[in-house]
Design goal:
Layout (H helix, E strand, L loop, with lengths): L1 H15 L38 E3 L5 E3 L2 H4 L5 E6 L2 E6 L31 E3 L5 E3 L2 H4 L5 E6 L2 E6 L18 E4 L2 E4 L14 E4 L2 E4 L11 E4 L4 E5 L14 E4 L2 E4 L10 E4 L2 E4 L20 E4 L2 E4 L17 E7 L2 E7 L21 E2 L2 E2 L1
Antiparallel strand pairs: 1-2, 3-4, 5-6, 7-8, 9-10, 11-12, 13-14, 15-16, 17-18, 19-20, 21-22, 23-24
Length: 368
C-alpha cells in the first residue's frame, strides 16, 4: 500500500522537472536537482546517516520517508530486508544479524496501521510508518484525515463511527459493539447463526468463523476449542510494529494482513488498514413482527425471516429437515414462536442482554 501512495505523492514533483532526463536508480549520471540548463546540484545524502530517523537515503541520493524497498539505497549500500523491516546497509551485509546495537545499522521503521500505533509526538504517515511531527507535515495513513484536535491537529477516522475494538465504542449511549470496524447497535448485530455466512456462528453479536475437527480458521486466528470459534490470535500484538512486517497490521490484538489502499479479499473487511473476516449480519427484512419481505408463513424477527409456528400453525416445523423444533423468540415486537433447532435460537443471552458469565461467550443465544 505504501508504495502506491508514495508513487502518487512523488508524481507532481517528477513532472515538474522539465528538461531533466530520467535515469535508472544505479545510473551515475542521474540528475538530482535540475535547474536552468539541466545543471545538477550537490546530492542531499550519500549514506543512511545523512537522513533523519525513519527516512531512507534513496538511490537518487535524496532523503525520503519510508522503506528502501521502494526508494533503493545510495551507492555502496544495499536494501536488506529482515523480520523487523528493511534498511540500507553496507554492501556485503548478510541480513542475518539484526538486534539493537553495535553494528552501525540505521533505525528500523516503526510500522503502523492507525494513529494509536505511534507515539505522542509521532504520526502514522501515508506510507504506514510512524513519523516525527504532526499530520500537517506528514499527512495521514489511509482511512484517516488530518483535522483539528485539541490545540493542534491529529489524524482522525474519516468515518466517525469507525473502531478497532469494542472498547472504542464503550462511551456510546446504548449497547454498542465494534462490528466489521464500525460501532454497531445491538439491534443491528447478529443474534443467530441464520444471519451469518455458512461456516460462521453468531458470537457476541458478530458473525465469527467456527472451527473444529473438520473446519480450520483464517490464517490470522486459531481455534478457541472451548467455544468452537476462531478468535485466538495466531500472532498476538499490542501495536502494529509488534507484527514486525510492512505486510501486517495489529487489529484488536491480532496480526492480520494489511489492506491494499482500503481493499480486502472477498469475505473480509477493512478495519484500521487490516483485513479481518466480515462480522456483519445478513439481514433480509426490516419491520419486526410482520411478514414484511418474508415468504408466506414466515415472520420478520431481528431483521431476519423465520418460519412461524405460532397458532394455528403449531405443526409447521415437523416436516423440516434442519429446523424441526418450535422455539420461543423475544424481539422488539414481543414473543413469537418460530422454527429452530437444538443449536440455534437459544434464549440464554443476546446482543442486548442478558450477558454470559465470565469466560463464556454468547453463541447463537447460548452461553458457551
Amino acid at each position: 500500500m505504501h508504495r502506491t501512495l508514495l508513487t502518487a505523492a512523488a508524481l507532481p514533483f517528477l513532472l515538474s522537472l522539465a528538461g531533466c532526463p530520467i535515469y535508472g536508480p544505479e545510473d551515475p549520471n542521474a540528475c538530482f536537482d535540475c535547474g536552468e540548463g539541466g545543471q545538477t546540484s550537490a546530492p542531499e545524502c550519500t549514506k543512511p546517516s545523512d537522513c533523519a530517523a525513519n527516512e531512507t537515503c534513496g538511490a537518487d541520493l535524496a532523503c525520503h520517508p519510508g522503506s528502501c524497498e521502494f526508494w533503493g539505497c545510495a551507492s555502496g549500500y544495499q536494501c536488506v530486508v529482515e523480520a523487523s523491516g528493511a534498511s540500507c546497509q553496507p554492501n556485503g551485509t548478510s541480513g542475518q544479524g539484526g538486534g539493537g546495537g553495535g553494528g552501525g545499522g540505521e533505525p528500523q521503521p516503526v510500522w503502523c496501521g492507525h494513529p494509536g500505533d505511534c507515539g505522542a509526538l509521532e504520526t502514522c504517515a501515508p506510507d504506514g510508518t510512524c513519523q516525527a511531527g504532526d499530520c500537517s507535515s506528514t499527512g495521514c495513513v489511509f482511512g484517516f484525515v488530518c483535522a483539528a484536535s485539541g490545540e493542534g491537529v491529529a489524524c482522525l477516522p474519516q468515518n466517525p463511527a469507525a473502531c478497532g475494538s469494542d472498547a472504542d465504542c464503550a462511551l456510546l449511549d446504548g449497547p454498542y459493539a465494534c462490528v466489521s470496524g464500525l460501532c454497531t447497535h445491538a439491534s443491528d448485530q447478529c443474534f443467530d447463526q441464520t444471519q451469518c455466512p455458512s461456516g460462521s456462528v453468531c458470537a457476541d453479536g458478530k458473525c465469527t468463523p467456527s472451527c473444529g475437527a473438520s473446519a480450520s480458521c483464517p490464517s490470522a486466528y486459531q481455534c478457541d476449542v472451548s467455544a468452537g470459534i476462531c478468535t485466538e490470535p495466531t500472532e498476538p500484538c499490542g501495536i502494529t510494529n509488534d507484527c514486525g512486517s510492512a505486510d501486517e497490521v495489529c487489529v484488536d490484538g491480532a496480526c492480520v494482513p494489511r489492506a491494499v489502499s482500503g481493499s480486502c479479499p472477498t469475505g473480509y473487511v477493512w478495519v484500521q488498514n487490516g483485513c479481518i473476516p466480515n462480522q456483519s449480519a445478513l439481514f433480509t427484512c426490516q419491520i419486526d413482527g410482520t411478514q414484511d419481505a418474508c415468504a408466506a408463513g414466515s415472520i420478520c424477527l431481528n431483521h431476519s425471516c423465520f418460519i412461524s409456528c405460532d397458532a394455528p400453525n403449531e405443526g409447521a416445523c415437523s416436516s423440516l429437515a434442519q429446523f424441526d423444533q418450535c422455539k420461543p423468540v423475544s424481539s422488539s415486537s414481543g414473543s413469537h414462536a418460530v422454527c429452530g433447532s437444538s443449536t440455534n435460537l437459544g434464549g440464554e443471552c443476546g446482543p442486548a442482554g442478558p450477558d454470559c458469565g465470565a469466560g463464556l461467550v454468547c453463541i447463537d443465544g447460548y452461553c458457551r
